[in-house]
C-alpha cells in the first residue's frame, strides 16, 4: 500500500509539472479585442478567419460605444487591441500612454437615417428629423455617431431634439427596429446590416462629417504577437475586403 501511494504521488507530480511548462498542457491563448459597435458584423467574421489562420489562439470580442470602451481601457480593463469609430477616443487612450505603437486608420463610415419599413413618419431629409412630433433617436454626443450627427446639425443650421440619446449606434438601431422611434441616426453600414428590418434615407449633409476608424495594439498586452497579426489582418487586403463588403470606406492604414 505504501509503495502504491508513493507511485501515485510521483505520477501526480509529473502531471502537474507537464501542465505548467506546456509540454502536454494547454497552449491555447486568448486575444481580447475591444471594438466599436458598428464593427460587430465585420470583426466577428475577421475573428473567425483569424482563429482559423492561427490555431491555438481564440479571439474574444467586446463591442460597445467607442467612448465606453476607451473609458474601460483607461480604468485598466484587460484588452489587447482597440478599434475605435473615431480618432477622438483613440487619442484619449494614446494620450494616457496605453497604446503599443501608433494607431492605423483602417476604415471610414458616414451617417444615414434609419426608419422603420414603409417609413410611416414620411422622413425624406435631414431637416425632417427636426419636425415637430418626430421621434428621433440618436447617439449621445460623446459617442462617435453622436458627434458626427451634432457636426451635421451645426453645419446645416438644424436643431435636433432626440427623444433618446444612446451609448452606442447598435442601441439606436435597435430602437428603430423595435418601432420605438420614427427615425434613428446611424451609420450607412448599420442600415445595410439590418436590411429588411429598416429602410435607409441617405442625406447629402452626411458627407461633411465622415467617421474615421483607427486601430491599435494596447500596451501591457499579454499577447503582443497575436495582436500584431490581428492588426495586419484588419488593415491588409483580406480585412479591407470584408469591411468594404459591409459598406465601409477604405482606410489609409498609415500610422497617425
From TrEMBL:
GO MF: metal ion binding; molybdate ion binding
Listed CDD domains: PBP2_ModA_like_1
Superkingdom of this protein's organism: Bacteria
Keyword Metal-binding: yes
Entry-linked Pfam families: SBP_bac_11 (PF13531)
GO biological process: molybdate ion transport
NCBIfam families recorded: modA (TIGR01256)
Family: Belongs to the bacterial solute-binding protein ModA family.
InterPro entries: ModA, ModA/WtpA
Signal sequence interval, chain numbering: 1-19
Name of the protein this chain belongs to: Molybdenum ABC transporter, periplasmic molybdate-binding protein
Entry binding sites for molybdate: 38, 66, 169, 187
Keyword set includes Ribonucleoprotein: no
Naturally occurring in which organism (per UniProt): Pseudarthrobacter phenanthrenivorans (strain DSM 18606 / JCM 16027 / LMG 23796 / Sphe3)
Keywords attached to this entry: Metal-binding, Molybdenum, Signal
Amino acid at each position: 500500500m505504501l509503495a502504491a501511494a508513493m507511485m501515485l504521488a510521483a505520477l501526480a507530480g509529473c502531471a502537474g509539472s507537464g501542465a505548467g511548462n506546456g509540454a502536454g498542457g494547454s497552449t491555447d491563448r486568448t486575444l481580447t479585442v475591444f471594438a466599436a459597435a458598428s464593427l460587430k458584423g465585420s470583426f466577428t467574421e475577421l475573428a473567425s478567419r483569424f482563429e482559423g489562420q492561427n490555431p491555438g489562439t481564440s479571439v474574444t470580442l467586446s463591442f460597445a460605444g467607442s467612448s465606453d470602451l476607451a473609458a474601460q481601457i483607461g480604468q485598466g480593463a484587460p484588452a489587447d487591441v482597440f478599434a475605435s469609430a473615431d480618432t477622438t477616443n483613440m487619442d484619449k487612450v494614446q494620450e494616457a500612454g496605453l497604446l503599443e505603437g501608433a494607431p492605423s486608420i483602417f476604415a471610414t463610415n458616414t451617417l444615414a437615417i434609419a426608419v422603420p419599413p414603409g417609413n410611416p413618419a414620411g422622413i425624406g431629409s435631414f431637416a425632417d428629423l427636426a419636425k415637430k412630433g418626430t421621434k428621433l433617436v440618436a447617439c449621445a454626443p460623446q459617442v462617435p455617431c453622436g458627434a458626427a450627427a451634432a457636426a451635421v446639425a451645426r453645419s446645416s443650421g438644424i436643431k435636433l431634439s432626440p427623444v433618446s440619446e444612446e451609448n452606442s449606434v447598435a442601441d439606436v438601431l435597435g430602437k428603430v427596429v423595435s418601432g420605438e422611434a420614427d427615425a434613428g441616426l446611424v451609420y450607412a453600414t448599420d442600415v445595410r446590416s439590418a436590411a429588411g428590418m429598416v429602410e435607409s434615407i441617405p442625406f447629402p449633409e452626411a458627407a461633411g462629417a465622415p467617421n474615421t476608424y483607427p486601430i491599435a495594439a494596447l500596451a501591457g498586452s499579454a499577447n503582443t504577437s497575436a495582436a500584431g497579426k490581428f492588426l495586419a489582418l484588419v488593415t491588409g487586403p483580406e480585412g479591407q475586403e470584408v469591411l468594404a463588403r459591409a459598406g465601409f470606406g477604405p482606410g489609409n492604414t498609415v500610422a497617425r
